[in-house]
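Table S2 (text version). Query chain:
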Amino acid sequence: MRIHSYNHVADYDRVGRFLVDIYRPEVLRAWLQPRWEYMHFHPMSEGLPFDRCGLAEEGGRVIGFIHFEDNPAFNYLQIRPGHESVASELLDWADVHLGGESRSFGREVLGVFVDDSDPGLEELVVRRGFECSDRISEEHARLEIGVPLPEAPLPDGFRLQSLEDDNDLHKINRVLWRGFNHEGPPEKEAVAGRELAQRAPSFRKDLTIVVSAPNGDYATFAGMWLVAANRVAYVEPVATDPTYRRLGLGRAAVVESIRRAAEDGAEVVWVGSGLHFYQSMGFAIRARSRLWVKSLD
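Corresponding structure-token output:
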């Protein structure tokens, strides 16, 4: 077994296949492959030092990976079932190569997310001096598509369509900018980032749903990713322009994207959120990860 620096050119696809391979629908301890792909085709990833991440291999096969999403201070462990012992060596790697400044903690820290269903990893990080933080955690909710989807009518004048029907990058930029509560007018240079997202290998215009307002603007955007090999779909991102909130538009867009994913073979849909918005559609929280940190000062 060896651990080496992640190399994007050589290892990006290998990590994606690894995540598909280790997916277990009954317990979500590892990232879904679409989260990995979405991260790398998001503008926030540009210039980040991913070579600080550590990839563990045995016999030419990936058995573990420690990496961050947007800050080397906060990291995730992905472990192939049956190789749980590699976690200790990946944490050794993290001690040397990872960690960074955190605004949340006001100092340099090394953090690792630990799923509540993984007592072995929790025991390991405790022994290594990590402490559980109540500031940062993640929830993941799951929907079994076998149950009937809820009704989601639209108000008069609004209509559902996919990006296969109409794909206006400037309208996408506006709804995502405003939908995620950024102040001021949308930055025109951010349009390039919206185009970058659509270059992701698994991005599908037909599964990405927008709600058009009567004036033609996109009022809601709902992204959907499908992993055919796992028969699983992943919701990311969802945003509604503040002007059009509380009209049921987000619900309608997500329900439509789920319906299309189901037609393409998805049996389960995950979303990285525990919001009531998703629970009201039938999603149930099935995984929680808490951040464990130790100071580097």
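Notes on Table S2: The longest strand covers residues 131-144. The chain has a mean pLDDT of 96.
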